[in-house]
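Task card 7
Instruction: Convert sequence to structure tokens.
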Amino acid sequence: ARCCATYDLKIADTSNLLLFIPDCTTSGLLPQDTGKKLIQAQISGFSNSYWELRRCRPKLKKLKKLLMENPYEGPLADQEAGGTKYSTEDLLCVIQASEEELLAQLQNIHACKIDGCWKILDFEYEIQILGHITQLVDSESWSFSKVPLSVCLEELGPLEPKEMIEHCLNCYGRRYTDEAGSVSFALNEDKVCQAMAQMLLQNAVKFNLTEFQEVWQQSVPEGMTTRLDQLKSMALVDRASRPETISLLRVEDLPEDTQERFNCLFAMREKWTEADIAPYIQDLCGEKQSTGALLTKYARTSMQSGVKVYNSRRPVAT
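Output:
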């Protein structure tokens, strides 16, 4: 069976002495009718510890870094580009994750398979293809919930590879087949709005919040509505500054280690509300663990203007 989780292998101590006996026969293997019989055994070694498997979060941060060494910027650029190429088997050798977890993360970061190797699209190239799709939707007066694949490929094929057009539709929409057997996509409003927000924020250290919201709404296709809650774990709003600002802060860019993550967050901002910090620690929660339990362990609470806030339990280097 294929393993679908990641485990650490650690040494665990035991109060019992473990004996190593060659050809040891346990009581369950002895014949039932022989009665009691003393068997002399030679002990070849002992131990007071053993190896234990402990389930852990997959170490996936390295994945995007590897693929970004040689991003896909279009067919012509890809032919000229060198660099290392990674198949699924190659990635499993260097990423501590099960195959199931690895494939899920590849989908999450919008990677695509080209000639048997995984590539991640250059973000500007991805936005360019998404722009072609949304412009076609607008010119054809289609509903965002019914974007026909065949027409997209026919109309946009001269501009971009058909495989990339379909890949982009898969990244930003939900694929389905109608009663006539035709494949269509329902574009995801939140994903499209998030992509446009990232495009605006990635080149600015901080953005005036009011101005950003106006430009952001203008940048998305007509009929879609932008909301700040679409940017959880992707952008951080500073309500304390005057004027209020917003900046790009993606959870995928933060450390994977729990203590390092908290150190990084508290170095950026001394005090956090639970609503602000929760999206940036949610992925650290283990099975049956809440963000509240993590905050209890790694942060202190205090009240600020009647609102509960969290700060670091230890001095943070700034």
